[in-house]
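Q: What would this complex look like in 3D?
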Amino acid sequence: MEVKERILEQASQMFLRFGIRSITMDEIAESLGMSKRTLYEHFSNKEELLTECIEFQYRENLKLRDDIEKAFGDDPLEIFHQHFRQVIIIINSIHPSYISDLQKYYGHIWRKHIKSKQEENIAFTTEQIERGKAQGIFRQDVDADILSRAVHMAMQLMGSPDIFPETRYSRTEVFRQVTLNFIRGMATAEGMAMVDEKFKA
Amino acid sequence: MEVKERILEQASQMFLRFGIRSITMDEIAESLGMSKRTLYEHFSNKEELLTECIEFQYRENLKLRDDIEKAFGDDPLEIFHQHFRQVIIIINSIHPSYISDLQKYYGHIWRKHIKSKQEENIAFTTEQIERGKAQGIFRQDVDADILSRAVHMAMQLMGSPDIFPETRYSRTEVFRQVTLNFIRGMATAEGMAMVDEKFKA
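A: Here is my prediction, written as structure tokens for the whole assembly.
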């Protein structure tokens, strides 16, 4: 693996496990067994490293998405279900400080990232909904583009401490409730039985 | 009617019909047949007038909500349906400039208002969902508080030009799609038939 890639993988792991503020460039260099100087040759500061870590994680998620699509490409409910499981695994493995640090101190980086990937992610969901409509799983009068946009919007706000303070709400449960309600809302009578079977706890 | 109340009613109408920026304090005074000086005795500037207009409209909506609750208090689906119809009437009667002016130039006022009423509005929706669960219309595993928060969050963002640019999306259709999907998502098999009957186009 290229040095840069190795740094991104290690730094991502450390940020996700311990939060962003609590990890220094020194500690990242040390854990990689490299000098601070080598680290700074690749990333001129922590913000730059974090920005590229977020891109790195996104690329990793895209690989996973491709794998899921290869395996279940013609089954939109299974694709939603696999993503659903994947997100729950990710939420449960992230240190709460990672999300609150991102919101409090690096919001500009996160917003820029989300914005740059927004249309691509919405298009992916729209495609799955359209496929579900063609298969009779989802209602014909569902506007796939509008609902895809609405749910992506809701997902982005799920971490908002204003609406879901993390001391009172489990992120997993919020995600589960919103996702399941979103998919059930689109389902036809035939689709509903399939959704409830697939997503039962 | 008290002078202040009369100003709020007239100014609200003018803002909603023509937008905020295009209406001056002069024009408001003139349309009320009062001097500019009298107007300024009640509201020291346009921002203050707008802030109180928003509160005035909110109070008017609360009256409507009370009427709806008095008439259909034990029928949560009908309450949702009446609100749904009411919001569509409001969306269709508002000049697009009112919303874009509010977002672009008076966002601080709007956000403060929304925030101050947020918990009260969420609690109202939560109560309807709980009633629907008790009646077997909505699923037992619906978390009324979480879904109520999520849908209020989505409603707030519906006007976001970033996600739903107003030249491409009809506000009415976005609202219709999101609301119907939200309610269907919660419905039991028995509830679903009632929802689809009530909300059919």
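A: To summarize the key features: DSSP finds ten helices and no strands in chain B. Chain B touches chain A at residues 115, 118, 141-143, 146-147, 149-150, 152-154, 157-158, 160, 162-164, 169, 173-174, 177-178, 180-187, 189, 192, 201 (CB under 8 Å).
Q: Very helpful, thank you.
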